[in-house]
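Hi all, posting the design record for the shared folder.

TITLE: backbone redesign
STEP: 1 of 1
STRUCTURE INPUT:
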């Protein structure tokens, strides 16, 4: 059985690629930075191996087994820091040097289309990664994609936010930039079909659908599929900074990511040819059909992966293990208890919190807090949640990140990713027929302490109302 190393196994593409590889009979070694964020389906757990590797820390790459046959390079650091391009280069070099010590035959790298003379910082970094990987003692196959359309993809969700929230758009001039979108199902098929295909060794391919569209055309076509009438005017006076703010406030993206996206959206991403589609005998989905397929998965609650669950959607980049133990020293706490009758009903209520369900009490205050957070550059409430009833460690819940979620333990632990003068945790736990709801705040300096006492009256209203609503019709 051939062994495949899958980097980025917790990412948008990696999560979708993994079950396909397992189904094809590969022994997959999943390379993740934090195993606490990795939740493969029960049906494939016995068929995979999980290792923790941080590509920017050379020593951790020793965890990669030497007997791998193939590898996927699906990682990037866009928007995690201002010097992400240097971080990506170092990661690629570390990866190449470690793989040179293994039996790997082929590495598949998913990059971005880099045909323009004037590349954005993001796309230039993608090209530099390809250059570094190409120096390895293995065959490199690079596939370069532009806009990827699928349920939960960053491009899809941003377009969705713009179209569904704005009947009239006064938009930046980069909406006239041309691109060539591709459906995520076609991307997954290409990535699997080129593996161990010697015809693709040491070659690079642009992958795209058959349609060349401007971003404006994509927005209008999306609106047409949704049965919405939208009007868009572009103006030349909107600076890149204003464009970033426009994208940040209207959509669920973070400001750092918005800045990187605006920088990239000024560059045309059009495929040189569709040679790979002919080689693999793939008929790509149209842009319109890709949208319809995405909404079918959304309606059936079958979103396999979402970019919002990636750390790039937030303002922090951390390992869950660093925060899962809630501190007590030097912290302020709001602890509330309520005795309950039906534990299962209470757990289901807790597991539906956030997103469309809301926070059970004074949702307008939560929305106000999210709006204020957005103004100050935070994530706000717009990320929502990926699944309406299921929660896993690493998921986003509005402006919280899930640290621990275990129904058997009757415990849900959240960590705040909003802008705060300190750190905050929110925990729900059931013990002996009592629901214990604990809000913990570790202040940073004097301002953090002032902040806690300033919002204390609101906490009294919100947290008391929340536990009462969660346990409503379920208390003794």
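Okay, here is what came back for every position:
SEQUENCE:
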């Amino acid at each position: 059985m051939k062994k495949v190393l899958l980097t980025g196994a917790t990412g948008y593409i990696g999560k979708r690629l993994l079950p396909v590889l397992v189904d094809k009979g590969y022994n997959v070694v999943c390379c993740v930075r934090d195993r606490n964020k990795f939740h493969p389906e029960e049906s494939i757990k016995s068929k995979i191996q999980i290792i923790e590797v941080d590509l920017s820390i050379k020593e951790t790459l020793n965890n990669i087994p030497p007997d791998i046959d193939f590898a996927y390079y699906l990682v990037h650091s866009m928007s995690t820091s201002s010097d992400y391009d240097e971080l990506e280069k170092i990661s690629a070099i570390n990866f190449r040097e470690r793989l040179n010590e293994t039996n790997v035959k082929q590495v598949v790298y998913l990059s971005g289309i880099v045909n323009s003379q004037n590349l954005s910082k993001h796309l230039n970094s993608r090209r530099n990664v390809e250059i570094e990987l190409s120096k390895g003692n293995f065959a490199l196959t690079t596939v370069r994609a532009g806009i990827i359309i699928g349920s939960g993809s960053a491009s899809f969700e941003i377009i969705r936010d713009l179209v569904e929230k704005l009947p009239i758009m006064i938009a930046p001039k980069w909406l006239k930039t041309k691109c060539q979108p591709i459906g995520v199902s076609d991307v997954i098929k290409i990535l699997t079909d080129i593996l161990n295909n010697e015809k693709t060794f040491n070659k690079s391919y642009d992958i795209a659908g058959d349609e060349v569209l401007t971003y404006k055309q994509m927005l209008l076509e999306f609106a047409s599929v949704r049965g919405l009438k939208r009007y868009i005017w572009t103006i030349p006076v909107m600076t890149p900074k204003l464009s970033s703010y426009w994208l940040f406030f209207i959509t669920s993206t973070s400001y750092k990511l918005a800045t990187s996206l605006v920088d990239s959206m000024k560059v045309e991403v059009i495929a040189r040819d569709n040679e790979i589609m002919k080689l693999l005998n793939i008929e790509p989905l149209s842009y319109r059909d890709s949208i319809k397929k995405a909404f079918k998965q959304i309606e059936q609650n079958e979103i396999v992966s979402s970019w919002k669950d990636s750390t790039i959607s937030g303002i922090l980049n951390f390992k869950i293990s660093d925060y899962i133990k809630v501190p007590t020293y030097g912290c302020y706490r709001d602890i509330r208890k309520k005795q309950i009758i039906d534990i299962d009903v209470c757990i289901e209520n807790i597991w539906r919190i956030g997103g469309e369900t809301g926070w059970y009490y004074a949702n307008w205050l939560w929305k106000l807090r999210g709006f204020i957070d957005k103004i100050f550059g935070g994530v706000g409430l717009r990320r929502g949640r990926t699944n309406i009833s299921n929660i896993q460690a690493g998921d986003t819940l509005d402006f919280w990140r899930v640290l621990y979620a275990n129904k058997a333990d009757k415990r849900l632990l959240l960590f705040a990713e909003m802008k705060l003068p300190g750190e905050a945790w929110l925990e729900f736990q059931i013990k002996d027929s009592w629901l214990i709801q604990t809000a913990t705040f570790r202040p940073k300096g004097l301002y953090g302490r002032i902040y806690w006492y300033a919002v204390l009256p609101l906490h009294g209203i919100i947290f008391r109302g929340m536990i009462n609503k969660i346990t409503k019709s379920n208390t003794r």
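COMMENT: Residues 445-470 form the longest helix (26 residues).
Let me know if anyone wants the other runs.
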